[in-house]
Amino acid sequence: MSGRVVVGVDGSEESVAAVDWAADEAASRGAELRLVNASLWQEHPVVVAVQPARDVLAERAQDLLGAMTERARSRRSTLTTSTEEIEDAPGTVLLSASAHADLVVLGSHGFSVGTGFTAGSVGQAVAAESDCPVVLVRESTPGEDGPVVVGLDILSPGEELLDFAFAFAARHSVPVRVVHTWHLGPLHPHGGSTGEQAGMAALSEAVRSFRERFPEVKVELVATAGRAAGHLIQAATGSTMVVVGRRRRHELRGHMGAVTHAVIHHAAGPVAVVPHT
User: What is the pLDDT of residue 1?
Assistant: First the structure.
C-alpha cells in the first residue's frame, strides 16, 4: 500500500460522487481510502426547535460512513478503507487530514452555494489551504477517457502540476494536454506566429523531463492567445480532469488566483487544485 486518499462524506449526492471517484483513484494508487465525516457540517447554521441528541448525531454519522464504506468496497473490492467522525467544522477536519494525505477529494456543486464538504466556502477554503492536492468532483461527473488538461504559466511552470498530471495520466492510460495562453495587448493585437512559436518552445522545454519519465503518456501542447480561464473551462468538456495550481507562499495561503477560482466554479468535470512553489 502506498499513501492515503481522504474523501469528505456528508450525505449529499455530490459527496457520493466524490466517494466513487476517490475509491477509483485510491485503487489506482494502491492507497488507503479514508472516509471522513464532520458533525458540524452546515456552513450557515439553522435554528431548529429540537436539536438531535449528540449520540443520535453520532449514530447517523456512523451509519453514513458505514454505507459509504460499503459503496466504495463494492466498487473496488480490494480497497483498504478507514473512517473518521469528528465533532468539528468540515474545513478544519479536512485541512487537518490533508497533512497526512496524498490527496483530498470533495464533492462540488460548481457555481452555487454549497453546504457540508461541497464547494461553497468550505470547498474553496480546503482547496486554498490544503497541504496536498485537492480534487473537486461534480455530482454528474462522467467517466471520460479524455485528456488530463493542465494549465501552465511558462514564466513559473510549477513542476508539481505537471508531476500530478502526468502521474495521473499514466495510471489511467489517458493523454495530457498542456495549455498556455497569453493576453493580447495593444502592442500585439493579433498575436501572430511569434507568440505561438515562443509559447510552444517554452512548453516543450517545460514538459521535456516528464516526457522522459512517462514515455507511455501521449502529450499535446497548446499555446494560444486569450484568457486562460476561458480556454481551460472549454477544454474541460470531454476531459478526464483539469489541473490548476495554487501558490504555497505563506502570504498567499487561503487565496487562489482568478484563473483557478474560475475553473473550480465553472469546469464541467473534476478539477484538481495542486499547491506549488
Answer: 52
